[in-house]
Amino acid sequence: MRTLIWIALRSLRNSALSSVVTVVSIGLASGLGIAVFAVAAQSERAFTGGHPSFDAVLGARGSALQLVLNAIFHLETSPGNIPWELYEKVAGDRRVTLALPLAVGDNYRGFRVVGTTDEVFEIEMAAGQRFSPRPGGRAFDPTLREAVVGATVAREAGLVEGQHFAPIHGVVHHDANEHEEEYLVVGVLEPTNTPSDRVIWIPIEGVFRMGGHVLRGAEETFVPKPGEAIPDEHLEVSAVLLRLKSPQAGFQLHNEFNVQGKEATLAWPIAQTMSELFDKLGWMSRVLHVVAYLVMAIAAGTILAGLSNSMNERRREFAVLRALGAPRRSVFGVILIQAGSLAFAGCLFGYLVYAVILVSAAQIVRRQTGVALEVFAFHPSLLWTPAWMTVLGVVAGILPGRKAYSTDVGTELVSEA
Amino acid sequence: MALLEIQDLKKSFPLPGGSSRAVLDVPAFRLEAGEEVALAGESGSGKTTFLHLIAGILRPDSGVIRLAGTDLAGLSEARRDRLRAENIGYVFQGSYLLPGFSALENVLLGMAFGPGARPAEARARLERLGLGARLHDRPARLSFGQRQRVALARALSSGPRLVLADEPTGSLDAARAAEALGLLRETCREEGAALLLVSHDPAILEAFARRESLRDLNRAAAPSSEQESA
Hints:
The structure holds two protein chains of two kinds.
Chain A: H1 2-14, H2 16-47, E1 56-60, H3 64-71, E2 82-83, H4 84-91, E3 96-108, E4 111-116, E5 124-126, E6 129-130, E7 146-149, H5 151-157, E8 164-165, E9 168-169, E10 183-188, E11 199-203, H6 204-209, E12 236-237, E13 239-244, H7 247-260, E14 264-267, H8 270-280, H9 282-323, H10 328-369, H11 381-396, H12 398-405, H13 409-412
Parallel strand pairs in A: 4-11, 7-10
Antiparallel strand pairs in A: 1-13, 1-14, 2-12, 3-4, 3-9, 3-13, 5-6, 7-11, 8-10
Chain B: E1 4-14, E2 20-31, E3 36-40, H1 47-55, E4 62-67, E5 70-71, H2 77-87, E6 88-91, H3 103-112, H4 119-128, H5 144-156, E7 162-166, H6 174-191, E8 194-199, H7 202-206, E9 210-213, H8 214-217, E10 228-229
Parallel strand pairs in B: 3-8, 3-9, 6-7, 7-8
Antiparallel strand pairs in B: 1-2, 1-4, 2-10, 4-5
Helix pairs in contact in B: 3-4, 3-5, 5-6
């Protein structure tokens, strides 16, 4: 076997350019294949992992998915508001152990400004991690125009402790929509690798009182006046994050809000709501998988084409090997080893391609959503894609291998005299 | 016991339409261990087929080819391959070196399917042939004569008992042919290998004490003996 491997590798060296081209194409196919499977799996895991502290989101009547995307992932627009009184009612419900109100609708340079209570700093907002301002910073005072910004906001928008900024109305940055109120950044949060890194947190009272905001908690609209308390009936929130006492509580609240009630929508469980999104997008994932399989098959075709093209010029080489005593199966084996080696080397290169694709994808996903993919997390496709690619490569070597096997020594080495 | 003993060897090749053409019909041929024989053969006389049958590359239609006491006709192809790898060195008209392999690697190939690669021995063999400085050069960087010497080293690398040489000097001028032939015979003598050389060049044939004509040996070579059978 060592002899055959030696001969196979020497022959590959002899056709270095063609070998390198084949290895690169296999690498691209293999890397792409792994990336398609791994990115899909990691994205699903990252988006359907739920929230470490909350089980449900309560919001305006409408799409549960939109609620979750807006309140948890800070994407999409808010489906609307619910009265403050509903928040107080649900917060006081014995089946609810924690309720955090959110008020949204402003941004700064595209980063969402979210109003909430200072309780947000006492809750585990990322897995195993509370919001913790980095040294030199602190939590906002709920009675002042102060803000605490996520790590990504600080890095990309350049907001650091001591700086002032004026929120922009809406979710897209237009200078014309700038609010008059200025906020002081008093803290920058340590990175959490969650969408929260892209959020500017301010006191919820600030959102209520932001110039141009109109409160519709009661039937009529209400514009708060500076220095005057806002009656509770006029207040409203965009969403309430809820931690429930038990799954049974979830079922009960689901029935009350979604089946019997018409006032609000309860997105529960959060993970299942996101899973439904991925289920709906399942066809796209399957199309990508089919494309990945096709690309891998085409890459195996390059092995077949490369080796087949070289068969004519190598017939004499095989005849010489046969004359030197090489059995037919050894000549056949040399071709299979070459095919397998090309595929295997391609797969090793494929890991590099995969790493580049995944790092790029992770950066894009993180930039767009704040969700961090685990670049170096294990996924079974890391093993089975290269394994299948190598098997496919060996299979692609069978046809040219048979040509080598059937080399007619008598014809190739006939004397010219 | 003769190193090579042939009796009633017959070989024909199929023709289009289901007929066949008899190429070889050799009643008897013997070669002793260490002996050297030159076999005269014109183009188309079946000399290459004869050597391929002796080497076990082709299987005869009938007859006996006994090499070192073993009848090749009764062996499977795999065992004939093995017997060839261990007992026969083949020198072709061209050097037929593998272009992607260095001089040393080409010689190692000659050992690979027989006794196994022995780099030190292969290196020493090339050094003896004056190629010590060209061990790692590929054939394209060697002169014609150097390539012939590498091919000779390869043919003898497995320590064969019989060297088959098929027009080994066919494409050389007279001076280089004489030099190559001298090297081949001398090396075979040193190694104790028998040499069966086929050539159509009278100058080459005259150098051998024992000369045979394939036309005389091969009854199928005579025009009258060519037959077509359904």
